[in-house]
Amino acid sequence: MWRYLLLSMFLFVNVNTHYLYQTKWFEVPLDHFGLGRKETFKIKYLENEDYWNKNEYGPIFFYTGNEGQIEAFANYTGFMWEIAAEYQAKIVFAEHRYYGESKPFGNKSLEKEYIGYLTSAQALADYADLINYLQKDEIKPRYPVIAFGGSYGGMLAAYIRIKYPHLVAGAIAASAPIHMFPGMTKCDLFNRIVTASFKRNFYCSENIQKSWHLIRSYSSSVNGSEYINSLIEYLESAYVTLAMVNYPFASSFLTPLPAQPVAVVCQYLNQNLANESLLEGIAKAIDVYANYGKKTKQCVDYKEGDNYQNLDAGGWDFQACTEMVMPVCSTGQNDMFEASPWNFTKYSEDCYKKYNVYPRENMARLEYGGDLLQAASNIVFSYGLLDPWTAGGFISSVSDSVDVILIADAAHHLDLMPSSPDDQSPVKDAREKHKQHISKWIDSFRARNKHVVTYL
Amino acid sequence: MWRYLLLSMFLFVNVNTHYLYQTKWFEVPLDHFGLGRKETFKIKYLENEDYWNKNEYGPIFFYTGNEGQIEAFANYTGFMWEIAAEYQAKIVFAEHRYYGESKPFGNKSLEKEYIGYLTSAQALADYADLINYLQKDEIKPRYPVIAFGGSYGGMLAAYIRIKYPHLVAGAIAASAPIHMFPGMTKCDLFNRIVTASFKRNFYCSENIQKSWHLIRSYSSSVNGSEYINSLIEYLESAYVTLAMVNYPFASSFLTPLPAQPVAVVCQYLNQNLANESLLEGIAKAIDVYANYGKKTKQCVDYKEGDNYQNLDAGGWDFQACTEMVMPVCSTGQNDMFEASPWNFTKYSEDCYKKYNVYPRENMARLEYGGDLLQAASNIVFSYGLLDPWTAGGFISSVSDSVDVILIADAAHHLDLMPSSPDDQSPVKDAREKHKQHISKWIDSFRARNKHVVTYL
Fold this sequence. Notes:
2 copies of one chain form a homodimer. The first copy, chain A, has 456 residues and is of the alpha/beta class. Chain A is built from 13 helices and 8 strands. The first copy, chain A, has an 8-stranded mixed beta sheet with strand order 1-2-4-3-5-6-7-8, with helices on both faces. Chains A, B: This is Lysosomal Pro-X carboxypeptidase.
């Protein structure tokens, strides 16, 4: 069941417009790596030049969009906006193909016969094309480009530096699970990290752990077992989301939630509960998750699946079924969930039923190398120690110029979020380090471009 | 007209079997970067394990096949065979998709509707897959892999290190014109280098330069102008080939030729000739080119085009029409040819007529970066100073670990050819340097793999 998790890496309700940008469109080929298909289509990008010192070749801050409409990333990646003035940078947020309005075949794009060109390699090639266009098609690019991204977007930021270092001077890759493909990390690590956040609150993880059996027996006696698995999945997904967005401030990033949402939810589970009082505690906890900030409380319709599911991110399920295979499991021992082993055979068959493709489980490893990054340079990987996706990170710096920053008390790419008075020193320090790296990358790009290169 | 040049980068007559290998097959997806097409097919590779110290993780020497049947590259890349014992290396030569017997759609592969998956990116991904298979699908590869290639194969050797550094420890890229895409180098440089080889011989280039007008006027009075352009193209192509394979030993590499073929040809053109004596000199020169080593001399059928054209390399014309656009022109002033400007519009239209595609003239630059190699590592680019393809090289080393070796008195990737008693010190020195680099890359791969890496 844990496959559905992947869908929730990045989905949005309530996009608030904090920042100003122009919406633009850029034409790309459907297939960058073959000539058989001749179609082109347009991807969306958001642009702001208010801070840009164009005449003196100010940098371009380029967000490598991930699985969702790009406006959401623009509005929640406050870090880029907040440092743009200091760097006199142009800001660009590029939308990932097949998401938002960047659909090659319109509303039919996610159908079996049209979805095949939704891959990370094609998306990276879109961004490479767009960056070249922003550089005015110059053989020797003039503006230092810094890539930014969080989560799958962080993977893309790292990957574009790895694959296109001639186009990108450096990359800030936040909460990027680049080491989570089959065979890399233990599949239960993700849920152990989720559990750790709940364990910080007395009895909370214990109560949740006990609740599964209770819910199953209660449900089967009351409603029959028809929807019980959906309910269990809904609850699991809720706890994972709470751990991911366990920010020190209220946010609508994935779904509207209060500051420190795990602690808020756990206040209803902070005693040793059993039977109906345990069910009641779980219900109150979920009520926070489902109804926070709503004027009138609504009954939770868990049968709908992820409550923040929207059409625009539907493509992720296909990506998870093809190249983005990231095994997740639970043991019921080291985590607070029911035991659920990673079953690749079933996973594959489910994918085949839905999309008529089997996963290429080695595709991302072969293409990007996992953590074999000895040849890479100018990348910062940042991971929040509260963030379950840190399961796909790695703990020590690879080389002088591939740095790993671990951020205590930080959930999913907190370092990219808008700053808040509630931010503690770990995330503030991380942002300072990011800036030091960015400055260094820009300086070395500029030093290099001063040289006059002589050709034969 | 210079477009046809590209076809002659690498074509073969007379494949002699000097070396022993097993012929094997490896299954690859038709499309590595999309899921729309589900076909797979097999590429051929040649393997020799006679020298391999498998138990102690001896290296794998991997030739990234270029536009032709792989046996030819195996037989002429003597350098790999000659150093294999010293390195206790396994030898692999991989055939490029759409060439030789590695055709995804059999005999129909080069037809318009099937040829679209013939791109360098797909070929590199084939090789990445194959290397992973040779590493037994291990997440942490155990055998250091060194890529080798000459000409377009040299580009691929460099590119596989650039794009897949987690799979390839280093690359020897011989005579690789990686800096020859539109906007990079001057289009007349290629033919100036051709001319320089003929200039070394008294009157030779001057006589050739004078011959064009004479041939045109003679032909129009005798035969009419019907085939005159074919004849001119044939002669131009012959001179280019002679310059490319101007080796110190007799070779059948492109076509059977004596040692120092430019000097041999020029012996008929080493006086100031005019009129019929000039035509006679040209005829004798071409007779060497066309009939060397043949038991009975044959009349040259220039209407056939390149005399060493064969079916197996037919794909190169498509590659030149899509991503491998390398502008070549002649001025008639700084070179010994008729003036022929680079006309991209005409080039594009010709391509469209043939393949129903327009060139993507920026594709290779965006994908591989031209000479913007500051982030690359562990690559040696070697260029022979007699080789016209050095026009697409660059003269100074990029960084500590991207080295450029210029080889005096050397034609097209002489350093990869089997050694010969006629070899002079420049090419011997180059081979020594290659070995130093290879040793260094292997050592650092091994040092790295001793570390125990701890994951979260």
